Amino acid sequence: MAGRMTFAIEAGSKATMTNNYYAVFIDDDELMLKAIRRTSRRLIPNWDATFINQPLTWQESLREKAYPDIVFCDYRMPGINGAELLQQVAHKYPLSIRVLMTGDTRDEILLGNSGNAHSLLNKPFSDEHLGELLSHVEKLKALPVTHSQQQCLGQLSQLPVLPEIIEKLRTALNDENTNASQIADIILEEPLIGARIMQVANSAYLGFQRTTDTLEEAISRLGTQLLYALTISFVLETETAHLMPAALHQQVCESTSQMAACGKALAVALNCPAKCKEKVFTAAVLNGTGRLVLAMVNENSPQLAAQLNKVSTHPDILITVFLLTLWCFPEELIAPLLDIQDAPLEEDKAWINILYYAHQYITVKDKSQDLADYTSTLPEDVKEALLKT
Q1: Helices marked H in 44-100 — which ranges?
Q2: Is 214 helix (H, G, I), strand (E, B) or coil?
Q3: Which of 84, 181, 229, 337 has the smallest number of CB atoms closer than 10 Å to its CB?
Q4: Which residues pair with 9 in a beta bridge?
């Protein structure tokens, strides 16, 4: 635009990186950038940051020899949209977390243009949401994963981006003044999700003595963490359906349901505490996200799939940990998941062991020789319980 001033506002020394983390914000709206700059000074004083209002020349404004930890980019900009720009970021800086900022949350925006984004930030966004996302980038960098695993995760594309209903639900669940009726109203914005929630709340493997015909009671039964996990799982099943063959998608979704049911049944059979049962079921449901992404990788990027299988014994778990950390799930649920690579652990009935047994069982249950080989290694009570599921 004629007469427009180009600027890249810096926080910290221009010559060298002065802090441990580096954020880049790209938006042609100068007022928005200045507002984000003021906010970031307060939220992330231990970060370096660059704020760019000329998207076509964004690379020229970055710090020399610096590698961004996260790049925020507005969707609607002159000359290039945010999805196209983030594709450039993915090529140049594959380990950077990529966030698409948009005030337009229509389905066609999410489905057609968010493939190179790890996360979606709806405008206007709160300081709290921005700060939480940035803090989880720090947690991503602190994950006990190898450099090779990081490189594989950075190459993932077509990652599912959480739609607006998830942010609404998360905000409501974090507000102690929100009641079940208000939460039900949010879920009913997607009627099919509401129906699936009811189905799970009335399923035999949750062990309730009677059925419920109200979403409010179903919400109270499930608890906030499992409700949130189920909603994410069901939403992402819908979001990923067009990205792989229908038969493959159905197979992955069904195996996730089977693993959750198997894990819960195993935890019950082994007389595990209620908290253990809940964690196993919730983690199995959430592992469906990693399984769906891995299925897409197997289908569309066989070379990357081979690399993932080389660097991890459980690549679906690795992807799940990455996504859950990015999506701001509690660390107490995420951190132990990577321990599945070393399971079974010494603690006899640790919840991660139960998840491991269920995970492995679902993988081999339809292959008679593999199933026999696997169950021969199990403690007798675990073997007996699994074969009854």
Answers
A1: 82-92
A2: coil
A3: 181
A4: 51
Amino acid at 116: N
What are 3-55's pLDDT values in tens digits? 344 445 454 434 445 568 999 999 999 999 999 999 888 888 889 999 999 99
* Amino acid identity, position 1: M
Distance CA 360, CA 222 (A): 26
SS3 71: strand
Tokens of 50: 């660059």
Q: Give the H/E segment covering residue 169.
A: helix 164-173
Residues 316, 291 contacting (CB under 8 angstroms)? yes
Report d(CA 60, CA 40) in Å as an integer: 22
Q: Nearest to residue 82, comparing CAs of 10, 1, 153, 28?
A: 28
How would you classify residue 223: left for phi > 0, otherwise alpha for psi between -120 and 50, otherwise beta? left
Give dist(CA 366, CA 332) in Å, integer: 32
CA distance 28 to 43: 22
The domain limits of the chain are: 8-142, 165-388
Quickly count: other Cβ atoms within 10 Å of residue 249's Cβ.
Answer: 19
Q: Which class for 84: exposed (0-12), middle (13-18), buried (19 or more C-beta within 10 A)? A: middle
Contact 6, 42 (CB under 8 A): no
Domains 8-142 and 165-388 share a fold: no
pLDDT digits (tens, 9 = 90+) for 304-343: 999 999 999 999 999 999 988 888 788 888 888 988 888 8
pLDDT level of residue 62 (50, 70, 90 thresholds): very high
* Superfamily for the 8-142 domain: Response regulator (3.40.50.2300)
Write out pLDDT tens, residues 125-145: 888 888 888 888 888 888 888
- The CATH architecture annotation of domain 165-388 reads Orthogonal Bundle (1.10)
